[in-house]
Amino acid sequence: MMLITCPWCGPRAHVEFTYGGDATVARPAAPDAVTAEAWLDHVYLRDNPRGPHDEWWQHTSGCRSWIKVRRDTWTHRVHGSGPPEANLGGDEHR
Amino acid sequence: MNRQTHRTERGGRIDRSAPLAFTFDGVRYEGYRGDTLASALLANGVRLAGRSFKYHRPRGIFAAGGEEPNALVRIGEGARAEPNIKATQVELYDGLTARSQNRWPSLELDVGELGNVASWLLPAGFYYKTFMWPGSWWRFYEHFIRKAAGLGRAPVEPDPDHYDRRYAFCDVLVVGGGPAGLMAALTAARSGARVIIADDAPALGDSLLASTASIDGGDPMGFVSRIGEELASCPNLRVLGRTTAFGYYDDNMIVAVERRADHVPAPPAHCPRQRTWWIRAREVVLATGAIERPLPFEDNDLPGVMLASAARTYALRYGVRLAGRAVVFTNNDSAYEAIEPVLDAGTDVIAVVDAREGGPGGDALALLQRFEIELIPGSVVMRAIGRTVEGVEVRSLSSDGASVGDASRRMPCDFVFVSGGWSPTVHLFSQSRGRLRFDEERAAFVPEEGAPRERGGRERSAGAARGLVRLSECLADGIAAGADAARAAGFEAEAEPPCPAVQEWEDCAPVRALWAVPLPSWRHGKRFVDLQNDVTVADIELAVREGYTSVEHLKRYTTLGMGTDQGRTSNVNGLAVLAATLGAGIPAVGTTTFRPPYSPVALGAVAGREVGIDQTPIRRTPMHDWHAARGASFVTVGPWMRAQCYPHPGESMMDAINREARQVRRSAGIVDVSTLGKIEVRGRDAGEFLHRVYINRIRNLRVGRCRYAFMLREDGFVLDDGTVTRIRDDEYYLTTGTGHAAVVMAHLERYAQIVWPDLDVHLTSVTDQWAGAAVAGPRSRDLLAAACDGADVSDAALPFMGCKDATVAGAPVRIIRMTFSGERAFEVHCPADYGVHVWEALLAAGEPFDVMPYGTEALGVLRIEKGHVVPNELDGRTIPADFGFDRMEKDEDFIGRRSLERFRVGGRKRKTFAGLVSENGDAIPRGGHLVWNPTAPRPMRMFGHVTSSCYSPSLERHIALALIEDAADWKGRVLYAASPLTSSFVPVRITDHVFIDPENRRPKG
Ligand SMILES: [Zn+2]
C-alpha cells in the first residue's frame, strides 16, 4: 500500500486518496479558441508512460485537497508531491 | 484411548502434566500441551498422515514447521472445519478433531492409489493435455478429474467466527523470532525505536528451541527465556506471537495474520478468531530463517523419510521417540546435529550416507566415532524400500555427481533422515522486489545485498535468511541488522547488546550440491521434487523435452511449487534439475516470482469486520426513527436508507404507494428529502465559479432565488442535475442527487483547486448539517402558512423558485419553493438536529389540510407522471439536448460545452425523451427495449429503451419514460417494450414525457 505525502497532512496511506488522472494536461483557458483536435486530445487522449509521472490525487479521506504527485508508474515509488501549481521536476508537461 | 507409545521418558518443551485428548480420522489419541498435531501423532506412533495430491500415495510427516508439504489435514467439524492445515502448525488442544485428506474411503485403503499404478496416465502437463482432447470428451472426464483432484474440501456453512483488522506503525519491524530476529529486536528496542517482532509460532525462539549448541554456558532454551523476558519488559516493543507475515507491499506495508484463537476449540466471547495486522514500518529486518531441502531419490516420499532438522526438533522439543533404526542421508554437516538428540530419544542411528567424498568436518566425525556409527562417504541413498520405509538401497556417487556406482548395498531401517542443505526463506524479501543471487559455496539462493532496488524495500535480511548457517554468526548478524535498522530509522543505541558466547561445532566441511540422486537409465522410480504437488524429476525432464524451458512455464506446466506449499522445500531443487536438464547454470535459470500470500490466509481474515451488515456504512436521516415508528418500509438509495412508503395495517405496498401519490395530488403530502446532497459555496467569486460549472446562467441569479441547473462532465455528458439557490451575495446553496453528492463535491473541488485556483471560492459539504422535508400538494401553502409562525408565504412573498428564511415552531428553516411532483411544493430545510421537530410541526400544522407522509415510491410515481428526470435518465450517456434542456445552455464557456459540439456535427442519431403508455394494461418492463415487432428474427432493430416505469394512479394506467430515436416522429404510434429476460412484450403508445399539467400551472399557482 503506497505512502503518499500530502503537502498539508504529511505521509498517508494511498487508500485515503482518490486518483484523479494525468496532471500534465491542463484545461485550455479558452476552449472555444482551440481546434477540435486539441480539445479531443485534452478530453480523451492520455499517454501511458512507464516511469516517473505527474498525477492528480485528491486527499478525499483527509483534507480534501487536490495535490500533484510525482509517482513512478512502474515501481510505485513516489518521488515527490505538492500543491497543484508545484513543479515536481518533470519535463513532460505539455 | 491410545497411549503415547512413542514418547520419551523426559525432556522437550511439552507439559506432561497437561494431557490433551484429540481424534485423528475418528481414532482417539492423547498428547500434551505444547505438542503440535504432528508431534502428537508421532508420539502415538502414527506414521501415515495423508495421501498425496495427484497419485494418492501414502505420505507421512516430513517436516516439523511451516514447510510441511505432506501432512495437510482438515481441522474441526461443520462450519468451523478448515481444510489444508499443516499438522506441524496445529497447536494441540483438548478435543481437537482432525481428518486426513485426499483419500477415499479411508487413509489406509485408498481407491485413488490406482492413480499411482496407472501413473503413466498422469504425466506433467496432464491437465493441459486433457484440455486438448476433443471438447466433448472433457465433459465426461471432468467429473472424475474434479473428484480426484484438488486439495481438501472447504466447509459449505457460513463462518461462525469473526475477524479483526488492525493498523500498526513502528520504526523497526522484525519478522521472525529465531536467533537473528531475537537479537535484532532486542538491539533495536534498546535504541528507543518502536519495535514490533512477529513470529508465527506461539513462543519465540524458533530453531533455538531445538538446538544442541550451548549459549552463555547454558542451554538455548534458557537463553530464549532470558531474552523473552527482556523483550516483554520493553514498553516500546510489541511481540506478536502466532503471527505470520504473509505479504510485503509498497512502501514497507507488511501484512500479517495473527491467529488469536486457533489453539482453542472455539474463540472465547468477543475474541476474533484471527486478526490481520497492516503494519507500516520505517525499517524492516527479515529474520525469516531457512528451510532444509530434501534429497530426491527413488520413492523418497515414503512415510519414514523425514528432514533431519525435523527429526532433531521432534526429539528435542517434543520428546518424540522415532522408534526403530534410522539412516541419515546428507550432503552437509547440519544433519549430524540430529544424531545425538535422536539417539537420546531412543532411535537407533545405524549409518550416515554422506554424498561428500571426504565426509563431514572434524566435529561431526568425532561424534560418529563416539557413538560408533558407520559413515558411508561419497555415496547416496538411491531408493527407499517398502510401503513405509523398511530399508534403503545405497550406492556410491561419481565425483561429477552424474551417475551412481553398480555396487548396491541394502540396509534395513525404519527412517531416513535427509538433509539436502538449506534454502534461506526469501519469500518476503522477493515480494519486496529484492533480487536473489545464487551462492555456489552455500548452494543456495541468498538475498543480493546492496543491489539497486526498483521498488522501496527498506529492509535487510539477517541470519539464516541470508544464508548464514552457524548460530554464532546468526546471533551477531541479528545484532548488526537491528542496530542498522534502528539507525536508519533515526535511533542510535547507546550500547548494543553483547554477542552471546556460543559453543558449537567449529570444524565443519562445506556442503556438496546435490539436487537429485542420479537414476540409472534402466530404472523408472519416482524421485519427488515437490511432495505436495507430486512433481518428480521425470516430470521436469519431460516438460523440458516438450519445450517448457522457462522456469515460470515449468511451474505452471508441472504445478511445481504451487498449492499451499509455494515451493518451500521444492523450489531450489526443482529449478536446479531444470538447469541440469537444460545444461545451463542455476543462475541462468533463475527463480520464479514469489507473490503474496506466503501462506494461505482465511478469507474471513482478509474481509475482517467488513461482512454482512458491516460491509458498508449505512446513513440514516434525522427523521429515520420517526419513519420506522410509523411502520415505514425502507429502501437503500446510495449509502442512505430512505422511507419507501408507509403502509396502513392490512394495506399492500402497491395500495400504499397509490394512496400516497393520490393524496399528494388531492391535498398535501410531506416527504423526507434530507438525503439530497447539499453543498455550501462561498467566496467573492462563488457566482463566477458556479457560472462556469453549470450550463445555466448563474451570474444573474438574484439573492433569494433558486434555479434548476445541470452540470456536465468535460466530455459533455450530464454529471448531475440539482438546484442553485443564492442565499447572499457571496453565498450559494446547492443541492445534488442523493447518490451523487460525493462525486459532485470532488468535481467542484477539482475545478476550484486545480483549474481556477485564482477564483475566491470555498466549498463545504453540508449534507449532514441540514435536514429537509418537501411539502407538496394543492394545500401545501395553507399548511406552510399555518406552520411558519406567521411568516408570509404568499405568491408575492415566496414565488415559484424563490427562497425565504423563516421559523417553524420556533426552529429556523430555509424554505425553497420548487417542485418535483409537479404540484405546488416547498422544500423546508432546517438544521439537522431540528429535523424531527420541524417534521412533526409540519404534520401537526397540516392536519386540517389532510396531510400525510409519503415515501420514495410515491415520490417516484409523481415525478414520472410529471416527466422529471433522475439518474435513470441521467445515466452518464445523455446530454441536456436529449431532454430539451439545451434551452438552458448559455453562450459562454462552461464545463463540457466544447464537447457538446460533436453532437451537433452529425454522427449517430441521439435518443430523445418521450413518454410511454401501456396499451394493454400490463406494466411496462423497466429497462425494456423498444422494438417494432417482437416476433421479428433477431437481432432486430431497437429504437430506444425504457428508463423509468410505474403505475400512474392519476391516469390509472401503466406509464413509463423512455429515450427513443426520432421521438417526435413516433409520437402517437405504438411500439413494443420488449424484455426477453422476463418474457414481457408490452405494446406502448409513444406520448409526450409530461403526463400531468403540461402547461405547468400547478407549481406556480
Ligand atoms: Zn491532506
Short characterization:
Chain A is mainly beta and 94 residues long.
Arithmetic mean pLDDT of chain A:
93
Which quaternary structure do these chains form?
A: heterodimer
| Major β-sheet annotation of chain B | 7 strands, mixed
CATH architecture term of the domain at 163-290 and 424-503 in chain B: 3-Layer(bba) Sandwich
- Counting helices, strands and paired strands, the structural category of chain A is mainly beta
Q: Find the count of extended strands of chain B (DSSP E, 2+ residues).
A: 50
Uncertain ranges of chain B: none
Per DSSP, what share of the residues of chain B sits in E-state strands of 2 or more residues?
25-35%
Distance between the termini of chain A: 30 Å
Query: What percent of residues of chain A are in strands?
Result: 25-35%
How does this model look, in words?
The complex is a heterodimer of chains A (94) and B (1005). Helices cover 9% and strands 34% of the residues of chain A. Chain A is mostly beta strands and 94 residues long. Chain A has a four-stranded antiparallel sheet with strand order 3-4-5-6, with no helix packed on it. A two-stranded antiparallel sheet of chain A has the order 1-2. Chain A is globular, with a radius of gyration of 14 Å. The termini of chain A are far apart. Chain B contains 25 helices and 50 strands. In chain B, helix 12 crosses helix 14. Chain B is of the alpha+beta class and 1005 residues long. Among the domains of chain B are: 163-290 and 424-503, FAD/NAD(P)-binding domain, CATH 3.50.50.60; 627-674 and 769-854, Probable tRNA modification gtpase trme, domain 1 (Gyrase A, domain 2); 677-765, Alpha-Beta Plaits (2-Layer Sandwich); 897-1004, Elongation Factor Tu (Ef-tu), domain 3 (Beta Barrel), CATH 2.40.30.110. Chain B is elongated. Chain A binds chain B through residues 1-3, 13, 18, 20, 26-27, 30-32, 34, 36, 39, 42-44, 56, 58, 60, 64-66, 74-78, 84-85, and chain B through 249-253, 278, 280, 433, 454-456, 714-715, 746, 749-750, 753-755, 757, 893, 897-899, 901-902. Bound molecules: zinc ion. Zinc ion (ZN) is lined by residues 6, 8-9, 59, 62-63, 65 of chain A.
